[in-house]
Design a protein that fits this description.
Strand content of chain B: under 5%
Structural class of chain A: alpha/beta
Number of helices of chain B: 11
Strand content of chain A: 25-35%
Oligomer: heterodimer
CATH architecture of chain A: 3-Layer(aba) Sandwich
Radius of gyration of chain A: 17 Å
Largest sheet of chain A: 6 strands, mixed
Largest interface: A-B, 31 and 22 residues
Strand order of the largest sheet of chain A: 6-7-8-3-9-10
Strand order of the largest sheet of chain B: 1-2
Number of domains of chain A: 1
Chain lengths: 235, 293
């Protein structure tokens, strides 16, 4: 059974239809990428999962229907959503951002997880009292990832993490995501415009076009697919 | 000089009353962008609860503590029942609702307790102590002390507890807070509860020096508005500094510019406020968020 499964999911913003029946599955322990052009419905797919857009159809998480739950409840079930560009609380300090990540935790391991984050992101320690809004774009994205991870999610949703970041920072970011996936078995559903880096990080991928799944397959299959290559990889 | 210091201490005591009510306004404004016009009447209402408890034979501090609990529960309940249905409505709608609440509470107090003046006890001795030639009233010290303790507790709550952190996050970034699992709507209700507690403190502190009646807080709340705006309507520190500054200023005007007479205290205070806002339109402490994008 897949950890996350979408069956014929529709979503709309007012009069504008964003998803026209998306079906996809994310197996536990996988990194799955969603590719596509602007307005294809990538972000909306993530928002449908986390409950930040009104949606219909079936969304199953660990076999349980979450299609009618609000974002607070979805988060408490173990889905961490790092939204596009706004993954941090700009007005709160770096450390308070991490504490917010642990808000839904009730166990005693939180301190250890903060320490674990410091091994991935050592600079968090010296910046702990600084407002998150004063960090650079790359640092904010790392902090957003760290914050999502201290929630100990079963599923991590990443929306366009590479947006506006320098190539080196993007590589570092995906390097950490990959490590987490390989060493800790973290399941990730990532939306990306940068298809090259997304296919390199993911095992499975879906290509969306105007609110529908156009192509699906393993990353290797998609990388070899003629039309995907021409439209999204540019060679 | 001794007289000056005495007036400053006494001004700080009055100012601390404005400060706690101003802090209540700021708490609600930060999370809902709305001025709660009923804040003064809520404070008076809770002071009546304290009066009733003392009247029925409760000791002062027991009545004080019970009143704070009642204020908290009442504040949360008001938000759930009256504000919640209009949570997503326009700001003007919510403002109208708080004005309606003001009128309703004011009427209810007159009906329950009658509009006649009631004297309210003070827990502090009515004498002064000599500190290096300056006579300081224990009344003033007590009022100031209570406010300091309440504000310090609030600071610790917001700074060090998980719930306090979630309330701060919900106020500045409700959507991101939901994604972190915070029940934002309940955080607003808790904010109303805490604001009601602060109001109750200011009401119980001001009541001994005036008389308890349904309109008791109407002037106080204007000073509190002024304090909140002076400090920057979203700044808790600003509300406290603003409240103290206004308290001291009014007291000094009353002493050294007594030709103005007590009737002109309020207009003069508001003039000073206007002058400050001309120089710093967002108040003294509302921080400009520096953000890299």
């Amino acid at each position: 059974m897949a950890l996350l499964e979408l069956r014929d999911v529709h979503a709309r913003y007012g009069q504008i239809t964003a998803l026209r029946g998306i079906s996809l599955a994310v197996e536990e322990g996988q990194v799955v990428a969603i590719l596509g052009a602007n307005g294809a419905g990538k972000t909306t797919t993530l928002r449908a999962v986390s409950g930040t857009v009104r949606r219909s159809g079936q969304i199953l998480f660990g076999g349980r229907s979450i299609g009618r739950r609000g974002p607070e409840d979805v988060a408490r079930l173990g889905i961490a959503h790092v939204p596009e560009g706004r993954g941090t609380f700009a007005e709160l300090s770096v450390w308070d951002n991490l504490r917010m990540g642990a808000y839904i935790r009730r166990d005693r391991g939180v301190k250890d997880d903060f320490q674990r984050m410091l091994t991935y992101f050592p600079w968090l320690e010296e910046r702990r009292d600084q407002d998150a809004g004063t960090l650079s774009g790359g640092e904010q994205q790392m902090l957003a990832l760290a914050r999502a991870l201290v929630a100990r999610p079963k599923l991590l949703l990443l929306d366009e993490p590479s947006l506006g970041l320098a190539p080196l920072v993007v590589r570092e970011f995906f390097g950490i995501v990959r490590t987490l996936n390989e060493e800790e078995g973290l399941t990730v559903l990532v939306v990306e415009q940068n298809a090259t880096i997304a296919l390199a990080a993911a095992q499975q991928a879906y290509v969306l076009e105007v609110g529908e799944v156009a192509v699906a397959g393993t990353s290797d299959e998609l990388a070899a697919n003629e039309s995907v290559r021409r439209s999204y990889l540019g060679y | 000089m001794a007289d000056f210091l005495q007036q400053v201490v006494s001004g700080l005591a009055t100012g601390s009353i404005y400060a706690s009510l101003a802090l209540a306004l700021v708490l609600i404004h930060r999370s809902t962008q709305v001025i709660n016009f009923a804040q003064g009447e809520m404070a008076t209402f809770t002071t009546y609860i304290a009066w009733t408890l003392v009247d029925r034979g409760a000791s002062y501090w027991l009545a004080f503590a019970l009143t704070l609990v009642a204020a908290f529960v009442g504040g949360v309940a008001l938000e759930r029942v009256i504000i919640r249905p209009v949570e997503r409505a326009s700001i003007l709608t919510i403002v109208m609702v708080t004005i309606g609440l003001l009128v309703a509470l004011n009427g209810a107090m007159g009906w329950i307790w009658s509009p006649e003046l009631k004297s309210f006890p003070s827990p502090f001795p009515n004498r002064g102590v000599d500190v290096g030639g300056v006579t300081i009233s224990l009344q003033d010290v007590g009022v100031l002390g209570v406010t300091v303790v309440v504000v310090a507790l609030l600071y610790v709550f917001f700074r060090y507890t998980k719930l306090g952190l979630a309330m701060r996050a919900a106020a500045v970034a409700p959507d991101a807070s939901r994604l972190a699992g915070v029940r934002v709507s309940w955080m607003l209700a808790l904010g109303w509860g805490l604001a009601a507690v602060l109001g109750a403190v200011s009401g119980m502190m001001v009541a001994p020096s005036v008389f308890l009646e349904p309109n008791m807080m109407q002037v106080v709340v204007i000073y509190a508005f002024a304090a909140a705006v002076l400090g920057g309507i979203n700044s808790p520190v600003g509300a406290i500094v603003g409240g103290l500054a206004i308290g001291v200023t009014i007291n000094l005007i009353g002493t050294y510019a007594d030709f103005l007479g007590p009737e002109l205290n309020l207009p003069v205070a508001l003039l000073i406020l206007l002058a400050v806002l001309l120089v710093r339109p967002s108040g003294l402490f509302d921080r400009v968020v520096v953000q890299r994008v």
